[in-house]
Amino acid sequence: MVNPLAPPTASVVSSLATIATSALPLLVAAGAVAVVAAGLVWTVADRWAVRRAWAGAARVEILAPPRVDPAGAPVFWQHLLGLLRPRWSLRRAPHVVFEYQFDAGGLRISVWVPGTVAAGQVAAAARSAWPGARTTITPEPHPISTGAGEVAGARLRLARPAALPIATEHRTDPLRALIGAATPLTASEQVRVQVLARPISGARLARLARPGATVDTGARLASVVAGGAATLAQEIVATAVHGPAHTTTRHRPQATTTGARPSGPGRLVTSTQDRATATKAHGAGGGHLVTVRLVAEVAPLGHGRDAAQVARARAVRRARAVASTFAEYSAHNYFRRCRIRRAGQVIGSRRLRRGDPLSVAEVAALAHLPTDEHVPGLRRAGAAAIAPPPQVPTGGPGVRVLGDSDAVTARPIGLSVADARHHLWVLGATGSGKSTLLVHQILADAEAGRAAVVIDPKGDMITDTLARLPAAARARTIVIDPSHPGRTPRLNPLDPLGLASVPGVGDATVEHVVSVFSRVFAAAWGHRSEDLLRVACLTLRDRPGVASLDQIPDLLGDQAVRARTLTGLAPSARLSQFWDEFDHLSDATRAQISAPLLNKLRSILLRPFAEHLLCGPSTVDLSAVLDRGGLLLVRLPKAALGEDTVRLVGSLLVAQVWAAALARAGQPEHTRLDAAFYIDECHNFLNLPYRLEDMLAESRGFRLSLILAHQHLGQVTPPLRDALLANARNAALFGLSPADAAVLARRTLPELSAHDLSRLDGFHAAATLLNAGAPTRAFTFRTRPLPPAPDTPTKPAAPHPSRSHQLPGKGSDHSDPRHDARPHT
Question: For 802, phi and psi rounded to 5 degrees?
Answer without folding.
Answer: -75, 170
